[in-house]
Amino acid sequence: MLLNSKWIQPGTVNDTPYNHYSALRSYEDLLGITTGGSDGQGHLGFAGQAGLRPFGSDVFNTQTSNN
């Protein structure tokens, strides 16, 4: 589990190529950090590189399965 079941449904899978910098960028976004950092938007180091995708709705979801 990445954070907790409030944000991520257990068993969620995706085919988007995320890395640990995507995780860092996502945590910074969740914490509401919007200033400073390497990109001036609160993202540190490689988490601030142009084009890096933070985790999206394919990872963060609160939908439940009908199984």
Task: Specify the helix fraction band.
Answer: 10-25%
Distance between the termini: 20 Å
Structural class: mainly alpha
Query: How many helical elements?
Result: 1
Largest sheet, if any? none
Number of strands: 0
What's the rounded overall pLDDT mean? 81
Principal-axes shape call: globular
Low-pLDDT regions: none
> Percent of residues in beta strands?
under 5%
Oligomer: single chain
Radius of gyration (CA) equals 13 Å
**SSE sequence, one letter per element:** H
Protein traits:
0% strand, 16% helix, single chain, mainly alpha, 67 residues
How would you describe this structure to a colleague?
This protein has a domain of about 30 residues. The two termini are about 20 Å apart. With about 70 residues, it is mostly helical. It is globular and about 35 Å long. It is built from one helix and no strands.
Per-chain topology:
Blueprint: H1 20-30
In short:
The chain has 67 residues and is mainly alpha-helical. It has one helix at residues 20-30.
